[in-house]
Each structure stands twice: as structure tokens, then as C-alpha cells.
Design goal:
about 750 residues; alpha+beta; Rossmann fold; Jelly Rolls; 4 domains; 39 strands
């Protein structure tokens, strides 16, 4: 179908595929929005187009990537199971945990119950064909399904189950959540049962949104049939979407999980915290030039690689987009509703799609840029420039896929809002990584050690807040050198292509003596700690929904100092989780008496604001008693904002849960250095954070952006387009260039 005949509702990726004249290999999967609801549709490209001609929006399912012990002690979790049972009284019994990931090593002893029962209640492998007639009445979404009874038979040699976790990621995640820890530290909730969906096709490290949604739906259906509460862990994500919870993936997750008793979703914050993948600034009616850098590189083997830049701007005056290549080739002044490309089959491809406003994203427009390698050779290195002509208001852009060549932004760099989708979803508890370990005992002998700052957020951990100033990530959990179950098929000695392989190639053995456990890092390893805690909170009260669990986890967290902040911070969320404190708060153990002026917490979503930032900032407040425990509901919050010039607009307080309040402050006429002062029930709180509303760096003394990743760095980079250093660290892949000691 020619591009000019495509239905007007067609989404950006689908439109580009049509312009390109190449259909996706095999069946296509799309997320289709009809009348406000999102559904997954599968078929070839022609079938998708025909079936969705009257849809309000259609997009091919975007890829999502993996976000690839002392940790338990750091979060208040006794290592010995008997001590844990005595101290906490909860181990996750009766709760199901769904893991949508790379599968699980179902032969690993960590996933057998202490009573000999297999704890993987269901294993659905979407990479294998359906076992027709094996489980009548159960929707398997085209995959192969086995029950706990069948897995037990396979362990006894009475059945063959070909599903393997050759990547190893899913097994590691499941072990953190609830591994038994034979001769080792157990997972957070070692008596939960698992529902595992292997959602990566083949042995890839990536997933599609459609397969993830199918996996989530399967888990919820099985939990509903069993009448049991369920937590779902998604240690994966991507940067496609406006990062405000409004993507079709996140909307569908919200439909399935928000305000549903006995259901919770936990998602990792992503590992982009040290990568220049987010740019932001303000359109002023003139031409703004956003640099996209493709470094010099050597083309590897395999199919042509692509990078995507996904830009969103506030609708207003018309905007025209142009893309200029290093050799001077140009795609000129592409207006809303249009798309253009340079290059063709076999050649390098430059493409721009400028989406018109839709009901799905009211008030926003989307510009998608694609840079693709030729079939042979490398993409031209250098500075590509996306020009934005006209318009008024804020824009945000993310490098959604970096390609094998590692594309990054060269200006307007914003170190905040690097959290990945679906971690920005209102239905998810989003988790960043905290450094609890710098070494581990390797089976190869010695103790590999990395020079890191213990007790701090990991440098790679994805940053918040969301584009609409919600507090994401919610919390931190251990995410560096986390020791957990190793899939036998992912041991790097037998499978160098597993996700442990990069460390092994760098000369570091991540596997512990005995070969049952291995070290990994990333927010993927942090998220399952919180999934396990959510399971304990559901065991404590199976009627809780994700909002109630999130509120408890936020309010009970340990404060982490980052720069001048000791409360909410874009890198740290509300702090490091505390299992014992969370369960105590879940039992109703709250503070008493009047609010404490010194123990109550106040924080800002950002501390530097542009005068035209209509989203403003949000002030987060947790009132506490003299002992430090959160106060019970019934308190009221008042906020005043004082500035050198003019007045800010302070909106009414809103509750983010029983224990957390938020107040939005918009710039109004305010300028310069300001203070935010908070009182609870008439008690003035000691914490009064500084908020700067400035239009140029000279207003803060003429200094350029500081080297430290901070909110101020965000504002300076976003407003004035100051470039910051290289592309950051590609975590795990570049372990070999870091300093190791043996």
C-alpha cells in the first residue's frame, strides 16, 4: 500500500515502514486504540492496516530492552530464613509473582518448595509453538505452556520440557524475588509461587510491547482463576513515548492493574542515567538546532541497525522539522501530518515523521527520526541536526534506540527524565538501583572488586521525574553486583552469548563457586527486590492495590542523601526500601501526636525552572511524628513560595496516598532565587528547599552547567543547549574498561 493511501490514524513507525516500502519480517504486532481502549492485534501488515482503518491510533509494537547477599541486609532483610520468619512473620505464602522476561531455569533448586512442590505454577514460552490440546480452555497466546505438575514430571524424567533460559536474565530476577537460596541468601519472598512468561523471541535480549502485554494478560488470567493476589515484575523498558504515562503500553497496563485489589506492578527505572539520551528545551518561534551525534565506529556483523529519536512538543504555533546529515543532505521543513525520507533499499536511511495531534495525546505533537545503517558498511559518522522552526513551549526528545553505533545527543542534554517506559506508568512502582556491594566471591578465585561509592544511587540508574512532574522512580533497591540464581543454560563458560557473557569476555567471572549463583547489575536486579516486598505486603493484606503498596513503600523508605537533597531526588526517588519499616507501616504502626518540624520530609521534583515551564514543579511532603514514623491520615498541608521578584502560582495540595502529599508550584511572574516553605497542621517544617526560576545561567552568577548530574544541570542544559561530555557508560557491556582489583 503506498504511503498516500495509508489511513490517517496510522502511527509513526507504521508510516515509516510504508514509506520505506519494506514490510516487517513475519507477522506484525500492533497496539490499536479504539474508543479509549488498547488491544493487541496480530497479522501481516496488510491485515493490520485493513482491520485498523477506523482506529483512533495504531502503532507497531515497539521493542523493549532488558535493563541489565548484601542487598538483603541493606534493606532490613535477615539472611537466615528462620530468623526472617521470626522477625517478619511473612515469606510470601499464598501470593503469585508473575515474571515477564527471558524465561526461567525450572530445574534450579531455588524454585522448588521446601515441601518438594514445584513453585513455578505456570511456564508460558512464547518462543515455542503451542502444545495443542495440552491445557484446554487456557489462552496461551500462541506459546507453549506447562503446569507445575508437568515440570515436576520433567524433573523426574517422565516428560520433556524444552523451554530454557539461555539469556539468564529471567532466572536471576526470579531468584531475587523469591529464590530459596540453598546454602545462600534467599530471595525477598521465598514462599511465593511463580507464573513465568518467556517473552523474548529466540534468544534475543529484547521484547516487543505486544508480547509483554500478552504475558501480563496471561499472568492476570491465571491469578484470577486461582483467586490469589499477584505481583508482576517487568525488568525491561524503552524510551519510546512521551514519558508521562500516556503511551499505549502504559495505558493498557493501567487498564489491567490500576485500582485493582490484589494486583501490583513493579518496573525497573532503566539504565540510562549516565547516557545522553534525553534532550529538552523551549521553542521560542526561532530555529532551534538539536544535535544528534553518531560516533565513528566499525560495522559489526548482522542486519542493519537503526537508531530512533522520539521528540514530543507542546502543541501551539506551527512547527516545521528538518533533518540535516553530516554530508549536507537535508529533509526540509516537514509539517504536521507529513513524513519524508532519504535513501532506499540497501542504502542508509534517514526518515522523519511529523505526527498531527490525536485524541490519544491531546496538546502534544510527535516527531520521529530514524537513522539506519546501509546493508553493507557503516552509517556516516558525525553530527546530524534536527531543526525545529517555529512553535512556542517545551520540547522533550529521547533516543529510543541507540543502534549498534551508539547515537547520543550533542546538545540540550537533560540528565533528568531518563527513566524508561513503562517505568513512567502511574500503574507501576518504579525502581532505581542503589550500590550495596562492590565485589563478590568468584568461582575463578579471588574477589573481583569495582571502585564504586557504597550507599549511593548507581550512576547508571534511570532518573526522573516524569515529563508531567510525577515522582519517578519511586524508590531504590540494591542493583549493583546482586547475587542470585544462575540458569545453567546461561553460564558464560558454556554460553558466551548470555547476558553474563560481556563480563566474562572482560576477564571477570560473574559466577560463584558451585555454579548455582551469579552476580549481575542494573535496575533489572533492583526491581525484583521491590516485587518481593510487594508480595509480602499482599500476604499481609491481599486486598491492597498498587496505589496502596506504592504509598507504603515510599513512606517507609530510608532517606538517601544526594547532593543537597535528603528526600525525593530525580536519581533516588523517595529513598532506599526498608522491608521491616514497610511491613510495620502495613500493620498500622504510625507516628503519633503533632507533626515533627525536623523529622517531616519536604522535596522538589526539580530545583531549577524556566519561566515558561507550564508544568511547574511539584513539592512532595511526608508528615512524620517525633519518632520518624509517618503520621496517620487526617493532616493538611500548606505551601508558600517566596521569590526575589514576582509571585508564583501555588495550587491546592493533592494526596499521592495516605502518607504522601504533593503541591504544584507554577512560575507565574516569579523570577530568581526562591524558597518553598511548608507547614503541616500549622506546624512550620524545618526543611525549606530552594527553587530557582531563571531565564539564563547568568542569573545564577554566570556559571555554566556544573559537571555533577543535578536538577540545575538539567535546567541549564535544557534552556541553553550546553553540550555535556561523551555518551556515558554502557553498563555491563563496558565492564572491561572499568578498574578491577583481584
Amino acid at each position: 500500500m503506498p504511503a498516500e493511501l495509508a489511513p490517517p490514524a496510522i502511527g509513526p513507525l507504521l508510516r515509516l515502514r510504508l514509506l520505506e516500502g519494506v514490510e516487517p519480517p513475519g507477522p506484525a504486532a500492533a497496539l490499536v486504540r479504539r474508543g479509549g481502549a488498547v488491544e493487541v492485534l496480530r497479522g501481516d501488515l496488510a491485515q493490520v492496516l485493513e482491520a485498523t482503518a477506523r482506529a483512533s491510533r495504531v502503532e507497531l509494537a515497539w521493542p523493549l530492552e532488558l535493563h541489565r547477599d548484601l542487598g538483603g541486609e541493606a534493606i532490613g532483610l535477615p539472611m537466615d530464613l528462620a530468623a526472617r520468619q521470626e522477625a517478619l512473620g511473612l515469606l510470601g505464602a499464598g501470593v503469585l509473582v508473575g515474571v515477564v522476561d527471558t524465561g526461567i531455569d525450572w530445574t534450579h533448586p531455588d524454585f522448588m518448595g521446601r515441601d518438594g512442590r514445584h513453585r513455578v505454577a505456570w511456564l508460558l514460552d512464547l518462543s515455542l509453538g503451542e502444545r495443542v490440546g495440552a491445557h484446554p480452555g487456557v489462552e496461551v497466546y500462541g506459546g507453549a505452556l506447562w503446569s507445575a505438575a508437568e515440570l515436576t514430571e520433567a524433573l523426574a524424567g517422565e516428560r520433556v520440557v524444552p523451554s530454557r533460559d539461555r539469556v539468564g536474565h529471567g532466572t536471576h530476577v526470579a531468584g531475587v524475588i523469591g529464590g530459596l537460596g540453598e546454602g545462600f541468601a534467599a530471595g525477598v519472598a521465598p514462599e511465593v509461587d511463580f507464573i513465568v512468561v518467556k517473552a523474548n523471541q529466540g534468544e534475543q535480549f529484547a521484547f516487543t510491547e505486544a508480547d509483554v502485554l500478552d504475558g501480563v494478560s496471561f499472568i492476570l488470567e491465571r491469578a484470577e482463576d486461582a483467586g490469589r493476589p499477584v505481583v508482576i515484575n517487568l525488568s525491561l523498558g524503552g524510551h519510546m513515548g512521551p514519558h508521562d504515562g500516556g503511551s499505549d503500553l502504559e495505558r493498557r497496563l493501567g487498564e489491567l492493574l490500576s485500582a485493582r485489589p490484589g494486583r501490583a506492578l513493579v518496573a525497573s527505572a532503566g539504565n540510562s542515567g549516565a547516557e545522553d539520551v534525553h534532550a529538552s528545551g523551549f521553542l521560542t518561534g526561532e530555529v532551534e538546532r538539536l544535535p544528534i551525534v553518531v560516533p565513528s565506529y566499525e560495522r559489526g556483523d548482522g542486519a542493519a541497525s537503526e537508531a530512533y529519536v522520539d521528540l514530543w512538543y507542546t502543541a501551539g504555533e506551527p512547527v516545521r522539522a528538518s533533518l540535516i546529515a553530516p554530508d549536507g543532505r537535508r529533509l526540509e521543513r516537514i509539517e504536521e501530518g507529513d513524513a519524508a525520507m532519504l535513501g532506499g533499499r540497501g542504502e542508509s536511511l534517514l526518515a522523519v515523521s511529523h505526527e498531527a495531534e490525536t485524541d490519544t495525546y491531546p496538546g502534544l505533537r510527535q516527531i520521529l527520526v530514524v537513522l539506519r545503517e546501509p546493508d553493507v558498511g557503516a552509517l556516516e559518522a558525525g553530527g546530524y541536526v534536527l531543526e525545529l522552526e517555529g512553535g512556542r513551549g517545551r520540547f522533550d526528545a529521547w533516543i529510543a534506540l541507540r543502534g549498534a553505533f551508539g547515537a547520543r545527543f550533542g546538545g540540550f542534554i537533560d540528565p533528568n527524565t531518563r527513566i524508561t517506559v513503562p517505568g513512567t506508568s502511574p500503574a507501576a512502582i518504579s525502581v532505581g538501583a542503589w550500590v550495596s556491594r562492590s565485589s563478590w566471591p568468584s568461582r575463578s578465585g579471588g574477589v573481583p572488586t569495582l571502585e564504586v561509592t557504597l550507599g549511593a544511587p548507581a550512576v547508571f540508574s534511570g532518573t526522573g521525574p516524569t515529563r508531567d512532574q510525577r515522582p519517578k522512580p519511586d524508590v531504590l533497591a540494591p542493583g549493583l553486583f546482586v547475587l542470585s540464581a544462575l540458569s545453567a543454560a546461561a553460564d558464560p563458560r558454556v554460553n558466551p552469548g548470555s547476558f553474563y557473557g560481556a563480563a566474562s569476555r572482560a576477564g571477570v567471572d560473574p559466577v560463584l563457586e558451585g555454579g548455582l549463583y551469579a552476580s549481575s547489575q542494573g535496575t533489572s536486579a533492583a526491581s525484583p527486590f521491590v516485587a518481593g516486598l510487594a508480595a509480602l505486603l499482599l500476604e499481609q493484606d491481599p486486598t491492597r492495590d498498587v496505589e496502596a503498596i506504592r504509598d507504603i513503600v515510599r513512606a517507609s523508605s530510608q532517606r538517601v542523601e544526594v547532593g543537597a537533597s535528603r528526600f525525593w531526588h530525580p536519581k533516588a526517588g523517595f529513598g532506599l526500601i526498608d522491608v521491616e519499616a514497610a511491613l510495620a507501616l502495613g500493620r498500622g504502626e504510625r507516628g503519633a501526636g503533632a507533626p515533627s518540624a525536623t523529622r517531616s520530609d519536604v522535596g522538589l521534583s526539580l530545583d531549577v525552572l524556566h519561566p515558561e515551564a507550564d508544568q511547574g514543579v511539584r513539592v512532595f511532603v511526608v508528615p512524620r511524628g517525633e519518632g520518624g514514623a509517618p503520621l496517620p491520615p487526617g493532616w493538611s498541608v500548606a505551601v508558600e513560595a517566596e521569590f526575589e521578584q514576582g509571585e508564583a502560582v501555588v495550587e491546592a495540595a493533592e494526596r499521592l496516598g495516605e502518607h504522601v502529599a504533593a503541591v504544584r508550584v507554577r512560575p507565574g511572574t516569579a523570577r530568581g532565587v526562591g524558597r518553598v516553605r511548608v507547614s503541616v497542621d500549622g506546624v512550620a517544617l524545618e526543611s525549606s528547599p530552594q527553587l530557582n526560576i531563571i531565564a539564563s545561567p547568568e542569573e545564577l552568577g554566570g556559571e555554566g552547567p556544573p559537571s555533577e548530574v543535578s536538577s540545575r544541570d538539567h535546567a541549564c542544559a535544557a534552556v541553553w543547549g550546553e553540550p555535556r561530555g561523551g555518551g556515558g557508560w554502557v553498563w555491563l557491556v563496558l565492564l572491561g574498561v572499568l578498574k578491577w582489583r583481584r
